[in-house]
Amino acid sequence: MSGSGDAFIGLDTSKAKNAVAIAEDGRGGEVRYLGEFENTAPATRKLVSRLAEKYDHLHFCYEAGPTGYGLYRQLQDLGQDCAVVAPSLIPKRSGERIKTNRRDAVSLARLHRAGELTAVWVPDTLHEAVRDLSRARETAMEDLRRKRQQVTSFLLRQGRSYAGRTTWSGRHRRWLAEQTFDHPEHQLVLQEATAKEAEARLDRLGAALAEIVPTWSMAPVVAAYQAMRGVNFLAATTLVAEVGDLRRFDNPAQLMSFLGLVPSEHSTGDTTRRGAITKTGNRRARRVLVEGAWSYRFGARVGRQLLERMTDLPKEVRDIAWKAQLRLCKRYRVLTARGKRTTVVATAVAREMAAFLWAIAQVVAPKEAAS
Length: 371
Prior knowledge:
By secondary structure, this protein is an alpha/beta fold. The chain folds into three domains: 6-114, Nucleotidyltransferase, domain 5 (2-Layer Sandwich), CATH 3.30.420; 125-213; 217-370, no CATH class. It has helices at residues 41-52, 70-77, 101-114, 125-157, 170-177, 184-192, 196-212, 219-225, 233-243, 252-258, 283-293, 304-310, 315-337, 342-361, 367-370, and strands at 6-12, 17-24, 31-38, 57-63, 81-85, 263-265, 274-277. The strands form two sheets. Strands 3-2-1-4-5 form a five-stranded mixed beta sheet. A two-stranded antiparallel sheet has the order 6-7. α4 packs antiparallel against α7 (196-212), α8 packs across α9 (233-243) and α11 (283-293) packs across α14. The two termini are 44 Å apart.
């Protein structure tokens, strides 16, 4: 059978089955529900083959979610166009109160045909592996923090308070080892909550990350970002793993908006109202930037660690990083002098950090692009 134009296919994915709807090309093209199909590679291949016999071009789409990018990669391997769309940016009518797999699939197909969907960036398999490893380390760090808090809270309930300045140092650990209780149950609680397993897990994941990043195509970009003050190896790896190649943004403003670091706005007529930052986009990348922004509360200088990170980097990258230091340290002082809250100042500095990172990305390309 000969082809008959384009077709836009909406997939509402789940663990076991995918609900499929199709919208034929043209404003008056038919939109119909095809049914549910097994979420397996053979079933997907059979569906594509069946639709390819009827239409010249197929355009698939589905929402980003827990099913990941496996379906996207399979459709790409089959030579089909596919878009993974951002769920938060899908237009929805305020009056709709019914949500089913069928309705979602039909809506995706119709909106995809109208060009109303926003596709997300899809990483390759290695990039996704590095990102998952980075997220696993972040989860381990949060777990360690919780366990340490449990130890501190338990000791406080028992009237034990550490008098030293720095907790979890060698001296603090020796103090913990010396604690004894009348009831053996309390001793058992302390022994089980010392967080040694969580610390070992964090060390293993950190070592694995340090081992894989040098073999990654984005390794030159990770190294270049570390020229920036407040961006160490872990912060740079998190940024690259979560956001990818910053060259995909046409300008720094797009990157700032993607990271949710721009002010929200509710304006009408001659009235302009701006509020807190939008906090859209990737929260992990936003977090590491805000954490790094606090380092600019001190005067501009290149310390020993920063100097070591910058040693083998191109002069243009070092110049951008130094320009960033001069501007952002001054920015921090000026905003603080105006009476701005320090949290607001750190957020403003983080927003400008994103712009300088974008500038560095224009200079240093990934290995694949550089070859």
